[in-house]
Amino acid sequence: GEGSTPGQPGVLGGAAFPFASPRFQIQPKPKLYVCTIQLEQQYTRGAPLGLRPSGSYSNTTSRENCFYASIPPSVDHPPATSSEFCASSREEKKKIARRKQKRTPCSLLARLVSRHLPLAPAVCVRGHRDAKPAAWTSADHALTGGTFCRRHSGVLQATRIFHTGQPRLAPLPPLPEYGGKVRLGLIPEEFFQFLYPKTGVTGPYMLGTGLILYFLSKEIYVITPETFSTISIVGLLVYVIKKYGASIGEFIDNLNEQKIAQLEEVKQASIKQIQDAIELEKAQQALVQKRHYLFDVQRNNIAMALEVTYRERLHKVYKEVKNRLDYHISVQNMMHRKEQEHMINWVEKHVVQSISAQQEKETIAKCIADLQLLAKKAQAQPVM
Amino acid sequence: MNENLFASFITPTLMGLPIIILIIAFPNILFPSPNRLINNRLVSFQQWLIQLVLKQMMTMHNLKGRTWSLMLISLIMFIGSTNLLGLLPHSFTPTTQLSMNLGMAIPLWAGAVITGFRHKTKASLAHFLPQGTPIPLIPMLVIIETISLFIQPMALAVRLTANITAGHLLMHLIGGATLVLTSISTPTAMITFIILVLLTVLEFAVALIQAYVFTLLVSLYLHDNT
């Protein structure tokens, strides 16, 4: 408990850590962006010491990174992303898995080391700036002196679970888009925030300047020929990065965008193709509805054709019949005419035969007398 | 001064433990493996770079030669990154050690030559005699060609070692000159410093070029032999 006298370090089984007094309150969790080994603090967990050096960790600061390293989410924060929803169930599964795990030599070593060096390599996996650690459980009881109460759990991420069980490779948690903010390209912003309450804005800079001057004056850092090559190399690097850094970044972003655009194009083409197929199908379905017109027309055509054939044949029959009847009529007419002609000829012949010579002379004389009369009449009446 | 000059080339140890292995293995973590479709900028950039180098270097090979692609690309990435990292202050460059360069050059060259002898024995032997030599000169020329063949791995290794070592030494020396001249006459020191800057630019170029040359020559030997 809190029984130790103020100012005295607690008894820690041998390791005297100067800051381990109850008075020393660590403010909300210093974010130490140093990639070192995370010690296993759990006694019942048998997970090995895990150090996974990976370049992708160097830029990530998101919570999701914790979950990739199978760190349990804090109780205080409501889950912000879907990975956190998954993590809670993952955590339960991990608890079950952990209970079944054996105690490997790595975990025994971790336990041994953790008993004697509670805070020394007290650093966290990079990047969980927002996550509050879960409460420290069994390590509390093992350490005498009561120097590690719960409110110090900000210093040592003691109950982080690290690499228990198989890593889940799919779905991968999303990576953050940009790295953490840094000043002077090296020092993370959180360091300045950490020093701000005590030393204000210029604090870190004074610290840096002081340190540099101290090293120079005490010749802890010696100015050698290498110093000048350092100056030239670092100066060159800074110049090149300042000048071309943004454009290279844009170029790389373009590369990624091109990749996405290509795939997007394929996707859009596929979608369009399917949509066209759907429309075609719909059009054809609509056409099917109107198919009966076609059949009606065909039926009408057939009916008309039948009618036409019928009428043709009727006409033909009529003509044939008329033809026959006409034949008979013309035969009759012909007979009639022939008879008439014959009769006329017979009558004429007999009349001509009956006309005697005397009759003929009388007739001619009468005709001449008539003509003379007419001529006189004609002379008497002038022609108009 | 002598001790200081060559101090950066001794095998690095930390409290008696050789950390040379870690130094050689270090560039590996600068090349993260892409595990997504769209990666971060670093990985995308490396992917693009490696594709560029691959296309440039492996188009001249046939199918058999292209089985060496992984080896050659890893080689150029390793040598390039090691050389560039060696330009940082107080760092150790493994490629300054002849032992390591020989260890890279001899197996690669021997692999290429033995492949050639195994699969195309006549053609490999024919390399010993250039076309169109007058008959009296043939014995001498065969000897000369043999010597030139066996000198290839040595040349590869020594070229890389000498270039990088010479560059580092020059930087150190000119830096030393600048250091001494600052207390004597500052303008001369400025001039020397400018020379140093130019040399640094050259060193960056040399670092990359040497990697390229090494790999190119190995691939050339390969091309001759497949």
Automatic annotation (TrEMBL), chain A:
GO cellular component: mitochondrial inner membrane; proton-transporting ATP synthase complex
Protein name: ATP synthase subunit b
Localisation per UniProt entry: Mitochondrion; Mitochondrion inner membrane
Pfam family membership, one: Mt_ATP-synt_B
Protein source organism: Sciurus vulgaris (Eurasian red squirrel)
Family: Belongs to the eukaryotic ATPase B chain family.
GO MF terms held by the record: proton-transporting ATP synthase activity, rotational mechanism
Keyword annotations: Acetylation, CF(0), Coiled coil, Hydrogen ion transport, Ion transport, Membrane, Mitochondrion, Mitochondrion inner membrane, Transit peptide, Transport
UniProt superkingdom: Eukaryota
Chief location category: mitochondrion
Coiled coil: 252-280
InterPro entries: ATP_synth_Bsub_B/MI25 (IPR008688), ATP_synth_F0_suB (IPR013837)
Ranges for region Disordered: 70-100
Role, per record: Subunit b, of the mitochondrial membrane ATP synthase complex (F(1)F(0) ATP synthase or Complex V) that produces ATP from ADP in the presence of a proton gradient across the membrane which is generated by electron transport complexes of the respiratory chain. ATP synthase complex consist of a soluble F(1) head domain - the catalytic core - and a membrane F(1) domain - the membrane proton channel. These two domains are linked by a central stalk rotating inside the F(1) region and a stationary peripheral stalk.
Assembly and binders: F-type ATPases have 2 components, CF(1) - the catalytic core - and CF(0) - the membrane proton channel. CF(1) and CF(0) have multiple subunits.
UniProtKB/TrEMBL annotation, chain B:
Record keywords: ATP synthesis, CF(0), Hydrogen ion transport, Ion transport, Membrane, Mitochondrion, Mitochondrion inner membrane, Transmembrane, Transmembrane helix, Transport
GO molecular function: proton-transporting ATP synthase activity, rotational mechanism
Record GO cellular component, one term: mitochondrial inner membrane
CDD domains tied to this protein: ATP-synt_Fo_a_6
Record keyword Transmembrane helix present: yes
Similarity remark: Belongs to the ATPase A chain family.
Protein name: ATP synthase subunit a
Species whose genome carries this gene: Sciurus vulgaris (Eurasian red squirrel)
